[in-house]
């Protein structure tokens, strides 16, 4: 069972989708087979953009898209590293429904990223990263964010909070956390 207290937390702000991809690529370069990431955030917050960056860092086959209409998609490594398993748990109501996907069969040999997986996948591993993406959605984004969103698309700032759980992450602290 996954530990309940984070061993560390990092919070990083990015200015646009490219910066979000770059940050995720840096993280992806340090991931290894067996790593589990749980992505959270509102629709349009950048979960797929983040996953695209992870894929770049891992060196997997490009073409990562939102898994909205596919529950699981595997992106094979092009560099001999682990594959990336990209999961959308949005329409799943429980951890029991997630078992039908059989993630256990690929977890040890792949990096597994589950969008909307909080409360559904923690039992899969004793270690995980929970990544929350916060994105402004209007002129007054709320107390969590201290910037305004430029609706022209020129700026697309996000706050990315990464919480690490379990022994895998006890000694690994990316981004100077």
TrEMBL record:
The keyword Acyltransferase does not apply. Keywords: ATP-binding, Cytoplasm, Magnesium, Metal-binding, Nucleotide-binding, tRNA processing. It comes from the Bacteria. GO terms for cellular component: cytoplasm. Transmembrane segments: none annotated. It is found in: Cytoplasm. The keyword Cytoplasm applies. One of its GO terms (molecular function) is metal ion binding. InterPro entries: P-loop_NTPase, T6A_TsaE. GO terms for biological process: tRNA threonylcarbamoyladenosine modification. Belongs to the TsaE family. Required for the formation of a threonylcarbamoyl group on adenosine at position 37 (t(6)A37) in tRNAs that read codons beginning with adenine. Is involved in the transfer of the threonylcarbamoyl moiety of threonylcarbamoyl-AMP (TC-AMP) to the N6 group of A37, together with TsaD and TsaB. TsaE seems to play an indirect role in the t(6)A biosynthesis pathway, possibly in regulating the core enzymatic function of TsaD. NCBIfam families: T6A_YjeE. This is tRNA threonylcarbamoyladenosine biosynthesis protein TsaE. It comes from Zafaria cholistanensis. The lineage of its organism: Bacteria, Bacillati, Actinomycetota, Actinomycetes, Micrococcales.
């Amino acid at each position: 069972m996954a530990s309940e207290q984070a061993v560390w937390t990092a919070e990083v702000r990015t200015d646009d989708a490219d910066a979000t991809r770059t940050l995720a690529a840096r993280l992806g370069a340090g991931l290894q087979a067996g790593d589990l990431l749980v992505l959270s955030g509102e629709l349009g917050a950048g979960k797929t953009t983040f996953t695209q960056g992870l894929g770049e860092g891992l060196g997997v086959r490009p073409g990562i898209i939102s898994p909205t209409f596919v529950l699981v998609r595997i992106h094979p490594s092009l560099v001999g590293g682990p594959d990336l398993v990209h999961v959308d748990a949005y329409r799943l109501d429980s951890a029991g429904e997630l078992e039908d996907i059989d993630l256990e069969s690929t977890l040890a040999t792949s990096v597994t990223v589950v969008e909307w997986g909080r409360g559904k996948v923690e039992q899969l591993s004793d270690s995980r990263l929970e990544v929350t993406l916060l994105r402004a959605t209007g002129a007054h984004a709320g107390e969590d964010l201290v910037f305004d969103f430029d609706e022209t698309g020129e700026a697309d700032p996000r706050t990315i909070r990464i919480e690490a759980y379990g022994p895998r992450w006890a000694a690994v602290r990316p981004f100077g956390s």
